[in-house]
Task: structure prediction
Amino acid sequence: MGSEWVTIKLDYCEVFLLPVKTKQFFLRENQFIESNEKLTEKSKRRMKKSKADNTLRAYEADWLDFYDWCLHHGLQALPAEQETIVNYINDLADDAKANTISRRLSAISENHKAAGCEENNPCRSGLVRNALDAIKREKGTIQRGKSPLLIEDLQDIACCFDSADIAGIRDKALLLTGFMGAFRRSELVRIDLEDVTFAREGVIILVNQSKGDQEGQGEYVAIPYNSDSDVCAVVALKEWIEAAQIKTGALFRPLNKYKQVRPQRLTDKSVALIVKKYAALVGRNADDFAGHSLRRGFATSAAQHDVDERTIMQQTRHKSEKMVRRYIEQGNLFKNNALNKMF
Result:
C-alpha cells in the first residue's frame, strides 16, 4: 500500500508512468503538475486554486477517510476498484446520511481525476451509481438545515444590541447586513471596506467571489434604507465603520479583551457564534441556529411577505430555483395552510 505506479494519459496522448503514494491528495499537491517542466510557476500556482479552500479541506478529509478504510481492509485506494467503492459507501451507510455519502464519492472521484485516472474513474461506473441510488432510496435525501432567523426575530433582537458597547455596534451591523444582503457567512467576513459604497438609496456591496461565483466575476448586492432605523443595515454599517475607525481592509473584525478592534478579519465561525448568542437572548434555542440562518431567514421572510421567486433570487444570488423554492415552501407552510381557511 506504500506506492503504486499510475499510468497518466494526457490530452495530446503522451503516456508516462510516475510512482505515487496512494494516500496522496492530488487536488492539493499534484506532482504531475509540479513535475511538468512545460508549465510556468505562475501557471502551477493558479492551478492549485481551481477549487475553494473550504472545498479542498472537506474533500481532503473525505479522501483520507476512504484511504484509511482501504488500508484497514488491505485494498488499493488509488486507483480503486469499483467494488471497493461500493463496499466502502455501504459501510458508510450504516451511520452516515445519503448526502454525506454523495460528497465522499465526489471527493474520491475528484482525487482520481487529479491523479490522471479520469478515463477509468471507478466512481462513474454503473455499479457505483446503482449502489448510491439504493442507499438514497433506503435512507432518503432530506436535509435538515438550521432554523431561519426571520425579520420578526431581528426586530426582537434589536433591543438586545448595546449602542454604548463596540461589540454590540459590530454585532448589529453584522447581523443586519448578513440578513438584508442574504450573505453566506463566508461572503460576509470577506467584505472589505473598499467593497462598500454608500448611495442616496442605501448601500451597495461588492461580493468578489462566492460559492455560486467560483470564477470570481463579482456580484453587487444592494441594501436600501429601512424605514425602521432599529433594523436598518445601512445605518448600522455606518455606525460600526465610524465607531471602529475602519479606514481600509476587513469590514468585520474581532475585538480583544479590552474591546479594542483588531486588524484581522472576523472568522466565519464567529458569525455562527454571534447568531447563536442573540437567538438565545430572545429565548430561542441557540442549537437551532447558525451562520446560514441569516441567509435562509431572508429568503423565508421574503416568501412570507409575498416577494416573488425571481426577486428573491436576485438578492440571494442563487443560480438554481431548487433551493429558493424550498425556502418559499417553508415560508408558506402556515400562510397557505388549508386549516387557516377552515378556522
Remarks:
- The first strand starts at residue 4 and ends at 9.
- Confidence is low (pLDDT under 50) at residues 1-20.
